[in-house]
Amino acid sequence: MINNKKMTEFTLIDVIERQIHFTKTNTVFDKTDFKDYDEGKLLAFSEMLEDVNELKEDEFVDKYQNIMRKLAKKFEEDKADEDKKDIEKMSGYNNAIVTIMMCINPNFEYEL
Prior knowledge:
By secondary structure, the chain is mainly α. The chain contains 5 helices and no strands. The chain has helices spanning 12-25, 35-54, 57-78, 84-104, 108-111. Helix 1 (12-25) packs antiparallel against helix 2 and helix 3 runs antiparallel to helix 4. The longest helix has 22 residues, at 57-78.
């Protein structure tokens, strides 16, 4: 998966693609235990991969900060009512967003 690019050519697209590759192929975790979590991660990474090609940095950051805020609110309000599978999927989705947002600004881990 590692390409011999110059680091000046390494982009957020590369980071997202490597995250997708790792999520699909990793042998560190039991796939059955993380099925729903990984499904959420892959969904977020796929959406972000599309957006990184379309949006400017501030648009991208605004979009995903808003999503993270909505998810945080949903976690607080609905946690008792949500199915465990849904919670795992939302967690994976949220954590994938945080992972990529931290590449843009490490402070995003602590903002929400």
